Amino acid sequence: MADASAECNIKVLCRFRPLNQSEIIRGDKFIPLFQGDDTVSIAGKSYVFDRVFPTNTTQEQVYNTCAKQIVKDVLGGYNGTIFAYGQTSSGKTHTMEGKLHDPHGMGIIPRIAEDIFNHIFAMDENLEFHIKVCTLLTTLSVLTKTNLAVHEDKNRVPYVKGCTERFVSSPEEVMDVIDEGKANRHVAVTNMNEHSSRSHSIFLINIKQEHVETEQKLCGKLYLVDLAGSEKVSKTGAEGAVLDEAKNINKSLSSLGNVISALAEGTKTHVPYRDSKMTRILQDSLGGNCRTTMFICCSPSSYNDQETKSTLMFGQRAKTIRNTASVNLELTAEQWKKKYEKEKEKNRMMKETVQRLESELNRWINGEATYGHDDEINQQSQLAEKLKEQMLDQEELLVSSRGDSEKVSSELGRLQMESDIAKAEVKEVLQALEELAVNYDEKSQEVEDKSLQNKLLAEELAKKMAHLMTIEAELSRLQEVSSHQRKRIAEVLNGLMRDLSEFSAIVGNKDIKLPMEITGAIEEEFTVARLYISKIKSEVKSMVKRCRQLENLQMECHRKMEETGRELSSCQLLISQHEAKIHSLTDYMQNIELKNRQLEDNYDSLSEELAKLHAYAEMQIFVCVSESMSEVTKGENQRALVQQMESHRETHHKQLGRLRDDINEKQKIIDDLTESVLARELQTLHNLRKLFVQDLTTRVKRHSEMEADDSGGCSHQKQKISFLENNLDQLTKVHKQLVRDNADLRCELPKLEKRLRSTAERVRALEGALKEAKEGAMKDRRRYQQEVESIKDVMRAKNPLRRQHAAQIGNDTRTHT
Q1: pLDDT category, 53, cuts 50, 70, 90?
Q2: Which residue numbers belong to the known binding site for ATP?
Q3: Cα 178–184–189 angle (5° rounding)?
Q4: What is the reported pTM?
């Protein structure tokens, strides 16, 4: 079956996605550090793989680098597997599927579907290919079949018994199967992913090729596996049925991890492939006859650093697994025949040699001469003597070597003890190194936290220093103003003093006391002025502080309004998407109604045709029975025929009634479901539009009021902020509700399609039943005619006179006409 076996390790590739919107808003750090094409460093620890793809890698680069070669291997007769493993929301489905019908955004699976046929079209025209595809989900449920069992073929290769495999001849047919499998795959909304896959997906491509001239056959299988992501409930927020699905997903991935660990250690005799159906199906992909490539998809966010490290460790363990890949070659009948003839000829020659040697041995035992063998016997005896001498020498050497062996064994025991002691010391050193590594990681994390804290404190210090500089500038300005005022007051006082001195010189000694009184009044006024200036300073400082607070509040309000605007734009985009989906669903429902009307018209026409056939059959039977009643004297045959016809007619009428009731009931169910889905979608859209218009008008009014009156106060700003936050929360809730409704619609759509298909199958069954009833009526009619003819013949044979009279009446009638 196979030849040219070769060992090869599992090829492990690491791909990081960019930071998503929620991680950017949360302020998460970008933790991976890429070192070349095969190394990535996380928190100071390096991880080496066959290839590492950074965040800016395109889908085409990923495929051309790592997945394109596997197409040639499968067409060359090898088995191949491509895995995608990682935590939820890490980009596994994007890597494997991508945007299925987008030439730039499509993933590995659609590109492989196209590449396979491109290679086939370029190969030898004497090769004939048979390609089968099949989609398997977690529970191995495909469409209407459930609980499919996993068995082994004659070569001990696992396969799924009862799964539906489709023959395909073009990439479009493969894409149809992929679309159908994607529609059957269940998704749910979590806090980390709005379209989280809730099942593993295995897409199997089986390619058989045969050379028309040489009849050589090759067979290759390609497994394309998109695993569901591991989930941490505290991050995803899973509840109810989604929580149960998360438990099953983690359990299945745990079984896969146990298999990887057992194969990576290499010391365990038992590998737990049978713990889950997924590992059982992929047994050849993990340590068997297969060339396996594994993509480990990781998140670059610091929020998911533990999950990212766990994924990278999983990839390093998987990289140590070795597979034994061989070509799946099927020998033709002619090749088997040649091989059989060759082995048969070899067996015949061996039998002849054995018989010849037995005859010579018998002659030698009987004492007869064995001509041509005396010299050979002498040589053998001489050789035996030499071998005896050598054996004696070897025995002596063995005795001496035994002593040396005992010495070596004692030395070996001593070295073994020293080795055990050294191993224990190495183990202790490794433990100490591990503890140091853990402490180093903790300290590095603390250093990062402290550096971040220092950075924040430095920024805050810079802000404080800037604020202090502004205050100092203001203080210096006020000091300059104060000094200027003091100079002016001093000049005024000096002028007054000069005037007073001149006045005192004029009036004499009587008025010497006047300047002292004037000086006291001036001092009082100066004190009052000084108090007024200090009061003005304090008021200016309070006003400056209040202005800064208002400016900060205004900036924060502007920022929150911008965020609300972005949220509103995203909600508008979601509204347009949901409107497009509702439009497509409406068109789909209209097509379904049109098909139902066509089926009803076909059913009505078939019912009319059946009624006509029944009427015609009853009329013919009635004519035949009436003719037979005129000739048959015995009434028992007549009653039996009439009762039989009545029973047939009642049976057909009951069957038609049941069919009409079933079709009416199915049509009523389809109409109710269509109306409920459309009503719910229209109501959701109406509510969303209403909320959007209300929020937009409120925001415009609030914005105009804020521009008209900037000095409304802190309480007014807080009311605006709370109002915007409430609107944002309400829009977020509406968005989540729309996503949940969309997921529910996606779940209900396959059910409606299944019901429509069952209705179509029921109609086809009804058509077949009508056809069978028509054929049965025709057979009954022919049988009744034969019975009537036989009864007529019997009556004619019993009464020849009446028969002669009847013939004569017939002749008379003919001559008369």
Answers
A1: very high
A2: 86-93
A3: 110
A4: 0.44
